[in-house]
Specification:
The protein is elongated, with a radius of gyration of 21 Å. The chain is an alpha+beta fold and 103 residues long. It has a 3-stranded mixed sheet. The chain contains 3 helices and 3 strands. The relative contact order is 0.14. It has a single domain, classed as 2-Layer Sandwich (Histidine-containing Protein, Chain: A).
């Protein structure tokens, strides 16, 4: 029975140590924040893909701390405004930085 207690204690310590490895620092995001940003990026890309007037291959989407950064080339200012509006409509987005250029 003591070996079971030792193993349980070791397991708890190992889990706590691995959880501490997922915490963020002042220069890096935590694992949870990174996953949240990945979900936001995917949702923005999906919204752009579902818009027939926009080309998802021409617009690069990056998210950092819930701020979406759009870059790339678009055909018109209407397309640019539409991409920004779609990004803003995604839940969890706090702001959108537009660095897109006209072709």
């Amino acid at each position: 029975m003591t070996s079971l207690k030792r193993f349980s204690a070791f397991l708890v310590v190992a889990l706590m140590a691995s959880a501490a490895g997922c915490a963020g620092t002042s220069t890096k995001q935590s694992t949870g924040a990174y996953l949240d940003d990945s979900v936001i990026t995917t949702k923005v890309k999906t919204a752009i893909l579902n818009e027939p007037s926009l080309s998802v291959t021409d617009i690069k989407v990056e998210t950092n701390k819930n701020v979406v950064h759009l870059s790339g080339m678009v055909d018109s200012s209407t397309d640019m405004n539409k991409a920004v509006a779609l990004a803003r409509s995604v839940p969890g987005v706090t702001s959108v930085k537009n660095d897109m250029r006209l072709k």
